[in-house]
């Protein structure tokens, strides 16, 4: 937990000052018994001077008021820096999450990250500003108090210290048990958050399949598990709290039995006896609180471990130490080359590769369609260009520069991506479209948005309630699949990239809309080198050339006609795709340019896109016969 200093450094001065004021408060509390001793041994037992008693009482009052002031100071001092530290840690965690590669996010559940960013950091803050300070102050108070007890009466002090032995042993046992439960509770909180996140994300599927009750049962089971762990923790804590509360009181009984005879026989003054018990009462407070503070510390320890587990994960996709720059843009897109590219996902690394030696050259300004069976690795290959994953062998170059030699910023300015399942953020349409163009403002930005929307045939956004200012994404207006795809396509186009990577970007559009978008896209793509995953013959129509991905390699590159004539696997794939391609219609038919429908569209106007899994690799097509012929297979969707 010492490593928390690294994050808490700016707050350390105030936390330390807060600690000193808390210590001051405890020492003032310990001074009260000494005043009592003076009053009892002095004015009360000697001359009975009421003036001296009043003076003593006023002194106790002053000490009490001062103690209360110090307690207030501690709270005031540590409250603000605690929240600052929490905020800073949260920001650094989020920044690190953004920096970590996709590979990391493939492995980690969202809820686990969410709970680390929220509840774990909250637990660390509470410990820093309260637990840590009070633990140190309690320990110091106990030590100073015991020293005062020895000064008052070493016999009674020995009785008190002897009682500490079982308390230390109990605390040690408690630490062992509670630590495990604390960690388990944190993990279960993360799992619970994941369950909520997944269910909310997939609420339509749950409802459509009537699986809400199952999801609820699952959630209840997880919530019960967490509850049991929390009860486990509470039981462990209450056991130790009981012992830490009872033992000091029992010690006081023993001390009384020893102390009274000592006083009766004149070995101990009455004032000293009173002072001993008053001191013991002050010391008992922090001792009894020890269980609670230890629990808090162990909770914070579990949270710190979980936080550091993420922070210590180094990013594997990093900027080079000596980055290269891309040569000036040639004007007609860049040359992209994949040389002997191999790739295996982390989970299957060592056992099987998705790509096992891909060689492909994309000439400047050309559009290449990537065709292959489902699961053949098209999406994976695409993601290697903007380094969402790093190749495990070979290299990807842009204009002769290895993508790993570019800074990620430069690379991602040069390469734009649109995925089949587009994610839009909770922001206005305009902000979503301008996401990748960080240096554009004002009229220039407006013009770029207009142009991108035009090419992507996304004019429907102007008819949204607030036009381009309408908030879409999770917190805003829901768009249909095809509408989202077009906004995402506009976002990719708006960056005016050298290289455009499109993963079946028109899959949710009906044939008419796709034809319009395709026509406009072809015009724009002339100045860009594009790689487009094609699942439909009509998407192949976008391309100048087609590359066939088969068994982890490119087994054919050529025009559609050439491949159709000479490449059996291409014929097979295309036939299989054509058999499942639209008009398996998806998107509402529109009213503007024959493409744009009103947002949301008429009920029932949308249907799910037909599954293309029938063209699955499970058909044996990878290894089997490719004799499906070429009957009527042409780009543009004709069957
Ligand atoms: N994050 C991942 N972790 C592990 N394996 C993965 C991951 N993503 C994809 N795969 C596997 O890699 C293989 C290729 O997947 P990929 O998505 O690239 O295929 P695809 O050709 O794009 O498929 P489709 O046409 O269905 O979109 C599949 O076997 C898939 O299960």
UniProtKB/TrEMBL annotation:
Membrane topology: Multi-pass membrane protein
Subcellular locations according to the entry: Cell membrane
Residues of the ABC transporter domain: 336-576
Gene3D superfamilies xrefs: ABC transporter type 1, transmembrane domain (1.20.1560.10), P-loop containing nucleotide triphosphate hydrolases (3.40.50.300)
Entry superkingdom: Bacteria
Domain ABC transmembrane type-1: 16-299
Region Disordered: start-end pairs: 583-639
Keyword Transmembrane helix: yes
Membrane-spanning ranges: 12-32, 52-73, 127-148, 154-174, 242-262
Sections of the chain in a coiled coil: none
GO molecular function: ATP binding
Keywords: ATP-binding, Membrane, Nucleotide-binding, Transmembrane, Transmembrane helix
UniProt keyword ATP-binding, yes or no: yes
PANTHER family the UniProt entry points to: ATP-BINDING CASSETTE SUB-FAMILY B, ATP-BINDING CASSETTE SUB-FAMILY B MEMBER 6
Name recorded for this polypeptide: ABC transporter ATP-binding protein
Organism the protein comes from: Cellulomonas alba
């Amino acid at each position: 937990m010492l490593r928390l200093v690294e994050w808490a450094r700016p707050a350390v001065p105030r936390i330390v000052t807060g600690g000193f004021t808390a210590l001051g408060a405890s020492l003032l509390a310990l001074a009260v018994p000494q005043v009592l001793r003076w009053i009892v041994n002095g004015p009360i037992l000697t001359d009975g001077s009421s003036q001296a008693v009043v003076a003593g009482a006023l002194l106790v009052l002053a000490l009490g008021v001062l103690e209360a002031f110090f307690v207030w100071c501690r709270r005031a001092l540590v409250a603000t820096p605690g929240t600052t530290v929490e905020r800073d840690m949260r920001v650094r965690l989020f920044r690190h999450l953004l920096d970590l590669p996709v590979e990391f996010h493939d492995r980690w559940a969202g809820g686990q990250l969410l709970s680390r960013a929220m509840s774990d950091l909250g637990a660390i803050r509470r410990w820093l500003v309260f637990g840590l300070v009070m633990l140190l102050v309690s320990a110091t108070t106990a030590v100073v108090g015991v020293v005062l007890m020895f000064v008052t009466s070493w016999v009674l002090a020995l009785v008190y210290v002897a009682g500490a032995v079982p308390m230390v042993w109990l605390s040690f046992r408690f630490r062992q048990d509670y630590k495990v439960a604390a960690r388990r509770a944190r993990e279960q909180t993360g799992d619970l958050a994941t369950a909520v996140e997944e269910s909310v994300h997939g609420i339509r599927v749950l409802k459509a399949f009537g699986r809400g009750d199952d999801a609820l049962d699952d959630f209840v089971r997880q919530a019960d598990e967490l509850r049991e762990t929390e009860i486990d923790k509470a039981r462990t804590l209450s056991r130790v709290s009981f012992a830490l509360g009872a033992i000091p009181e029992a010690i006081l009984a023993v001390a009384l039995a020893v102390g009274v005879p000592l006083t009766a026989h004149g070995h101990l003054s009455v004032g000293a006896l009173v002072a001993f018990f008053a001191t013991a009462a002050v010391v008992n407070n922090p001792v009894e609180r020890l269980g609670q503070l230890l629990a808090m510390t162990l909770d914070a320890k579990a949270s710190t471990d979980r936080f550091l587990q993420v922070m210590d994960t180094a990013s594997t996709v990093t900027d080079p130490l000596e980055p290269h720059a891309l040569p000036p843009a040639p004007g007609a897109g860049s040359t992209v080359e994949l040389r002997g590219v191999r790739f295996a996902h982390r989970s299957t690394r060592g056992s099987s590769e998705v790509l096992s030696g891909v060689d492909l050259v994309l000439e400047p300004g050309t559009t290449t369609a990537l065709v292959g069976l489902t699961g053949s690795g098209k999406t994976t290959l695409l993601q290697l260009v903007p380094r969402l994953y790093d190749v495990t062998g070979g290299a990807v170059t842009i204009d002769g520069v290895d993508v790993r030699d570019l800074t990620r910023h430069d690379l991602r300015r040069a390469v734009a991506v649109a995925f089949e399942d587009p994610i839009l953020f909770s922001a206005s349409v305009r902000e979503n479209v301008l996401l990748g163009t960080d240096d554009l403002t004002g009229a220039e930005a407006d013009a770029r948005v207009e142009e991108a929307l035009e090419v992507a045939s996304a004019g429907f956004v102007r008819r949204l309630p607030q036009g381009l200012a309408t908030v879409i994404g999770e917190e805003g207006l829901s768009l249909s699949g095809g509408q989202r795809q077009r906004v995402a396509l506009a976002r990719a186009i708006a960056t005016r990239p050298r290289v455009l990577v499109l993963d079946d970007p028109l899959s949710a559009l009906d044939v008419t809309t796709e034809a319009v978008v395709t026509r406009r896209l072809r015009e724009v793509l002339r100045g860009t080198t594009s790689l487009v995953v094609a699942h439909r013959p009509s998407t192949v129509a976008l391309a100048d050339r087609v590359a066939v991905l088969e068994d982890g390699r490119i087994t054919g590159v050529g025009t559609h006609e050439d491949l159709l004539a000479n490449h059996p696997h291409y014929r097979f794939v295309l036939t299989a795709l054509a058999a499942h391609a639209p008009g398996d219609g998806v998107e509402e038919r529109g009213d503007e340019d024959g493409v744009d429908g009103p947002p949301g569209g008429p009920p029932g106007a949308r249907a799910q896109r037909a599954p293309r899994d029938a063209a699955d690799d499970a058909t044996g097509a990878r290894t089997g016969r490719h004799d499906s012929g070429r009957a009527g297979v042409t780009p543009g969707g004709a069957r």
